[in-house]
Amino acid sequence: MKKILIVGSGGQIGTELVKKLRGIYGNENVVASDLRQLTGEIVENGPFERIDSTNMMQIIEVVKKYNIDTIYNLAAILSATAELNPMLGWNVGIGSLVNCLEIARVFGCAVFTPSSIGAFGPNTPKDMTPQDTIQRPNTIYGVTKVTGELLSDYYFTRFGVDTRSVRFPGLISNLTLPGGGTTDYAVEIYYAAVKGEKFICPLEKGTFMDMMYMPDALDAMVNIMEADPSKLIHRNSFNVTAMSFDPEILYNTIKKYIPTFEMEYKPEPIKQAIANSWPNSLDDSCARNEWGWNPKYDLDKMSVDMIETLRAKLGK
Ligand code: NAD
Ligand code: AKB
């Protein structure tokens, strides 16, 4: 049985990934950790350790204590927040990554570190962006993601560390709110719609980006780490996507289920500039061919589930 450490467990992905992995591998085999002291299910159902992942010794102690063989490294500062504090973005994203890779080399662990559509830039082909293409991002978040992809591949080819990764699009979920990204609007819009509030959209009409519902993202993280290594031509990092839309398409989809819903555009310059530099849509055929990537949720199916779940959660 795998012995897994999740670094940065308290965020949008981590809170759901801990649950998912504990369901598969057993509560006692999945150690959650975060810079912050977390509370609730995540600390009650299985081991939790407080770790600042920029501190190598703190990770080493936990890896030794639980005999860890797989690390999911989720600690990072998302794109919009990182643009306001670039050095913090670099120090957390790269500090955590370098520590996880070095520890993996010494202790023989596998490592998953998510990359992002943010690893692409303004001169990347925008539509059906290929797996292997120009990556010259103009955000600090993107710079950390490209660095992460290169370093992870380097640790695989140079030291044989089993590093694997996907380039996630914007993730949409209903448990934990997103943590300061450019795609956050695609979660916030559902909360506004279900609460009966008008939504102020921080991006312009026509701003297309890839998106994915969290259950598919969780499957991606499990399946890539379980994939047969002999089938992997790529490693760091695979394009994955489930849908591509702009705010207007999302608004009109939600309006089908909540006809009174209203939205107004008020673009935020930093988020708009970041979104403009990212692809409209990804070609994820390498992930489909090499490890069977096959998302289950399209925009309609996700919207029905989001609205139903948020109505129950918010008592609306
Ligand atoms: P998040 O901001 O919601 O959560 C990050 C977590 O990391 C937080 O709980 C935070 O407390 C913790 N953290 C911050 N600094 C830390 C440190 N020094 N040590 C330990 N923990 C620390 O982020 P997320 O959305 O869950 O994203 C996780 C990963 O997935 C990131 O690498 C992100 O770039 C990537 N990703 C996310 C999305 C998305 O839409 N959510 C899309 C693409 C890629
Ligand atoms: C962000 O917007 O920063 C993230 C991402 C797509 O990497 N959601």
Describe the 3D structure.
The chain is an alpha/beta fold and 316 residues long. It has two domains: 4-169 and 229-239, 3-Layer(aba) Sandwich (Rossmann fold), CATH 3.40.50; 170-211 and 243-314, UDP-galactose 4-epimerase, domain 1 (Alpha-Beta Complex), CATH 3.90.25.10. The protein is built from twelve helices and 14 strands. It has helices at residues 14-25, 41-44, 56-66, 79-84, 86-107, 140-159, 185-195, 214-226, 247-257, 269-277, 285-291, 299-314; strands spanning 4-7, 30-34, 48-50, 70-73, 110-112, 115-116, 163-164, 166-168, 170-172, 199-201, 209-213, 238-239, 243-245, 263-265. Strands 3-2-1-4-5-7 form a six-stranded parallel β-sheet, with helices on both faces. Helix 2 links the parallel strand 2 and strand 3 (48-50). The longest helix has 22 residues, at 86-107. The radius of gyration is 19 Å and the shape is globular. The termini are far apart. The mean pLDDT is 98. Bound molecules: nicotinamide-adenine-dinucleotide (NAD) and 2-amino-3-ketobutyric acid (AKB).
